[in-house]
Specification:
Length: about 300
């Protein structure tokens, strides 16, 4: 927590003060609720990489865990800001198990409510939001899908709906940036982030049926231990090694199925693990007509 002198006075010294923590977590959502004098925190990821779905409030002295009857699903990489029209804290997006989300939630100090606006931004993670109380809006910029390039779009929340705004000039596409309202100028300030660069990661599975055949790449954040035998499903001799989180469709041609995943040029993903496995349709292979490849475990590095 950053400590300063009284408003309007130039502080002789600015210091950080350590306060009670909630344990290790990253990619949380955090926003001020000025009406209630609280800071609201939701979710994030724990030290083991599990997405969290808890709600906490800072009252100026301590963190208080809230017990809402309704909550958003656990997530990380989402963004939160105070809605100056609805007078509540707004949450949008994030990801859960490598699946990006496009839902909008509001916190009134007691419960979360899922809002269902007529329009909404595409699903994304690592975006930023900030309130603009002078215009009665919340601005959202950038981020990325769970697997894809950075976004450079601007969305405004007017209290009931999201609206896409075509702005020029505008910041370049990015993720992991910060945004905040500057009351002196009445403008929202955006700083930093990672640009739209992505490393392509080609993957290929050989040995499928000769003709064109649907295929799918199963992507998970861990390998199954133990693996699951798929004989009871009619997939004789097949084993599931990857814990499914995202399924990327594809097509096998001439016995070869290919995918190209795009990985973010973001140092925060270094050390993350992925488990992958391909499924191919082959009507002659077994009663289910589907075969599985061997599993692949990967750890993301840097270069």
């Amino acid at each position: 927590m950053l400590g300063t002198m009284a408003a309007g006075a130039l502080p002789a010294q600015v210091t950080w003060e350590r306060v009670p923590t909630l344990g290790q977590r990253l990619s949380v959502g955090l926003a001020e609720d000025p009406d209630r004098g609280r800071i609201v925190l939701f979710g994030g990821q724990d030290a083991a990489g599990a997405d969290l779905g808890d709600t906490w409030e800072w009252d100026g002295t301590r963190w208080i865990q809230c017990q809402p009857l309704v909550s958003p699903p656990p997530r990380s990489g989402h963004a939160m800001a105070f809605d100056p029209v609805g007078r509540r804290v707004l949450l949008f997006g994030g990801q859960s198990n490598y699946t990006s989300l496009d839902d909008t939630w509001a916190w009134d100090g007691t419960n979360w409510q899922e809002l269902r606006p007529a329009s909404r931004p595409p699903a994304r993670v690592e975006h930023a939001m900030a309130a603009d109380p002078g215009r009665g809006q919340v601005a959202l910029f950038g981020g990325r899908p769970a697997f894809g390039s950075a976004l450079g779009d601007t969305w405004l929340w007017n209290g009931t709906d999201w609206q896409l705004r075509m702005v020029s000039p505008a910041p370049s596409a990015r993720l992991g940036h910060g945004m905040a309202f500057h009351p002196g100028t009445g403008k929202i300030v955006l700083v930093g982030g990672v640009d739209a660069r992505r490393w392509p990661w080609p993957l290929q599975v050989v040995g499928g049926p000769a003709g064109p055949s649907p295929a799918a790449l199963v992507v998970g954040d861990r390998a199954l231990d133990p693996p699951v035998l798929l004989d009871p499903l009619g997939m004789l001799g097949c084993t599931l090694y990857a814990a499914p989180a995202v399924v990327v469709p594809g097509m096998a041609l001439g016995g070869v199925a290919s995918w190209s995943l795009t990985l973010p040029a973001d140092p925060s993903v270094v050390g993350e693990t992925l488990a992958l496995q391909a499924a191919l349709v082959d009507p002659l292979a077994n009663p289910a007509g589907v075969v599985m490849s061997e599993g692949l475990a990967a750890t993301l590095g840097a270069r």
